[in-house]
Amino acid sequence: MRFSSFIQLLAATSYARAQVPKPGVDGKYTISSSSIKAQFIPYGATLTNLFVKGKDGEDVDVVLGYDDLAFYSKDPGHPVYNSVPGRYVNRIGHGTYKLDNKTYSTELNDGNNTLHSGTNNWSYRTWNVTAATNDSITFSVRDESNSSKGMPGLVLANVTYSVDGDKWNVKMDAVSPGVKSPLMLTHHTYFNLDAYKNPDTVKIWNHTLHMPYSKRYLVADDGALPTGEIATAAPDSINDFASAPGAFLGHAQGLPGFSSNCGGGGACEGYNGYFLIDDAPADAAVVTLASAFSGIKAELRTDQPGVVIYTCNWFDGTGDLKSTQGTSENKKVVRSSCIAIEAQDYVDGINQ
Ligand SMILES: *[C@@H]1O[C@H](CO)[C@@H](O)[C@H](O)[C@H]1NC(C)=O
Ligand SMILES: *[C@@H]1O[C@H](CO)[C@@H](O)[C@H](O)[C@H]1NC(C)=O
Ligand SMILES: *[C@@H]1O[C@H](CO)[C@@H](O)[C@H](O)[C@H]1NC(C)=O
Ligand SMILES: *[C@@H]1O[C@H](CO)[C@@H](O)[C@H](O)[C@H]1NC(C)=O
Ligand SMILES: *[C@@H]1O[C@H](CO)[C@@H](O)[C@H](O)[C@H]1NC(C)=O
Ligand SMILES: *[C@@H]1O[C@H](CO)[C@@H](O)[C@H](O)[C@H]1NC(C)=O
Ligand SMILES: *[C@@H]1O[C@H](CO)[C@@H](O)[C@H](O)[C@H]1NC(C)=O
Ligand SMILES: *[C@@H]1O[C@H](CO)[C@@H](O)[C@H](O)[C@H]1NC(C)=O
Questions:
Q1: Ligand 7 contact, 201 CB (< 6 A)
Q2: Is 191 helix (H, G, I), strand (E, B) or coil?
Q3: How far is the CA of 103 from the centre of ligand 2 (A)?
Q4: Residues 208 and 173 grouped into a single domain
Q5: Which residues form the pocket of ligand 5, taking CB atoms under 6 Å from any ligand atom?
Q6: Ligand 3 site, residue 121, Cβ cutoff 6 A
Q7: Which end of the chain has the least Cβ crowding within 10 Å, N or C?
Q8: What is the tally of structural domains in the chain?
Q9: Where is the signal peptide (predicted)?
Q10: Residue 128 Cβ < 6 Å to ligand 1
């Protein structure tokens, strides 16, 4: 499986209203290629299922989600499951930023910071389906001025998902036709390439992760807000995924600091931070995630300058797995059992 993402900023034009495509009887929109089946719902422009072939030719659903589509909007934990947050993803430090010398205040919904634009974020909206074929679907959102506090001007966005052979493409187009406004998008997908079927471990640590162009990362404070400092990971240190192809995600589990590497007052184990992508050749695989158990490998290609890696520390084991995932012993999303890979621009870049 390959996963490319593209983000473009284009000039504004008006929307043409095409005939609205219909979901299947299961409530999902399904697109497919020779080796991938992907399913979506309009809520959050969310990917609910991503089936690829495992080493024995079986279908493996490699992303998290719920069987009960109605639960996406009700889940109090709302982990932004495989959706598109916006219009400015991730954190805005201290809920404030400046544009042309005017100071704007955004909603504090994550400690001292704004996360995913506040409580009216795009991952909580029911998007319009504006185009669909057997192998592609487009979701659109019209985000009125100040519908999220402190975000001026209308923004129009389209997100197109398509599949082609072993490739899943994510393309995002967004414009702010009226005034300057913060604009930064990502796709917030959570993976477990074993679909939680490995009887020896449901943790993500036995997946391998290689990011050959990402020696550097953003240093963050206890609330996961970058401080402005850019650090370089020493070989074999906790944040080194650049130097050893095939290194386990849990390669640093025994090192001091691993169990408090992502803030939360020292309670967050593993990763919840931003890695820069430096000097990658065009179309290079910048992130490779793989699992020997399922035989599945995912490669990310992106035009974005970096990627957030989050290893699901804050899942407390109460969330249900889909019926396509898990074993008779495990039906829950336990702590550190998945990985979110989010290609995006520098976190809080608006203030740095
Ligand atoms: C979204 O798609 C519609 C229909 O193709 C198009 O008219 C519009 O320009 C697109 N908007 C953006 C922001 O790309
Ligand atoms: C912002 O303020 C500074 C200092 O007062 C001034 O030099 C600069 O021209 C202003 N920039 C804009 C875009 O108004
Ligand atoms: C997104 O908006 C919802 C609904 O207003 C809110 O409950 C949630 O906390 C927001 N999510 C984030 C990550 O801020
Ligand atoms: C799309 O899929 C349907 C159902 O599988 C099939 O009948 C139709 O021919 C396909 N259309 C195209 C353009 O491939
Ligand atoms: C969907 O389209 C309708 C009609 O154009 C519009 O009023 C509504 O705001 C759109 N919904 C979203 C989430 O953008
Ligand atoms: C934006 O919304 C907030 C409340 O959500 C309000 O305090 C503020 O005045 C609004 N700004 C504008 C320009 O309408
Ligand atoms: C982790 O992967 C290694 C190498 O593929 C394998 O030998 C080991 O048994 C795996 N451990 C678990 C708990 O799955
Ligand atoms: C929030 O800011 C206050 C005041 O600067 C500070 O004492 C506190 O530690 C911060 N909280 C977090 C979670 O960073």
A1: yes
A2: strand
A3: 12
A4: no
A5: 125-128, 141-142
A6: yes
A7: C
A8: 2
A9: 1-18
A10: no
CB distance 112 to ligand 8 below 6 Å: yes
Query: What is the pTM (predicted TM-score) of this model?
Result: 0.91
Query: What does each C-alpha distance from 291 to 50, 156, 203, 243, 265 come to in angstroms?
Result: 16, 38, 12, 19, 31
Interval 3-52: pLDDT, tens: 445 444 443 333 344 456 789 999 999 999 999 999 999 999 999 999 99
Q: Which residue type occupies 146?
A: N
Q: One-letter amino acid identity for 295? A: G
In a domain, 197, yes or no: no
CA distance 160 to 154: 20
Residue nearest to atom 1 of ligand 3 (CA): 119
Average pLDDT of the residues in 170-181: 95
Query: In terms of residues, how long is the chain?
Result: 352
Please indicate, yes or no, whether residues 224 and 150 belong to a single structural domain of this protein: no
Neighbours of 112 (CB within 10 A): 13
- Predicted pLDDT of residue 20: 61
Residue 182: which domain range? 2-189
- For residues 275 and 241, the answer to whether their CB atoms sit within 8 Å is yes
pLDDT score of 136: 97
| Residue 232 belongs to some domain of the structure | yes
The pLDDT value recorded for residue 8 is 42
**147 Cβ below 6 A of ligand 6:** no
For residues 222 and 311, membership in a common domain is answered with yes
